[in-house]
What does this fold into?
Amino acid sequence: MDQAQEGTFLKPKLHDETGTCKIASEILSRVGDKWSILVVVCLSEKPHRFNELRRFIGNISQKMLTQTLRNLERDGFVLREVTPSSPPMVSYSLTALGREFENTAVGLAKWAAQHSDAIQAAQKRFDAQNSLSS
It folds into this structure.
């Protein structure tokens, strides 16, 4: 961080650019939700069909998975490929942009799994301390 004068710090450049913050916020809110992260993690292994994704992810409704896949496709992370057959076969894979995001998504998922016990313990301590003072 740059220092203007003793005790006064300048804000990072990103914070000064309202448009940049807004764009980053919008993108992060879409790709940072739990369903998007799980879809990208699943597709990082190989392309999957819809029901394979649904089984892998588990507790996701058909509607939410459809919406998540459409959003990821719209944002350029996922490619939806239809193979003409009867019935048509649809599979989903990561695009080049999705592959770039893959390491971040997989890393975030691993970090969450590795630290879930510590986070839950902190939440219990916080809740216990705040229930006493209420």
Summary: The chain has six helices and five strands. The mean pLDDT is 86.
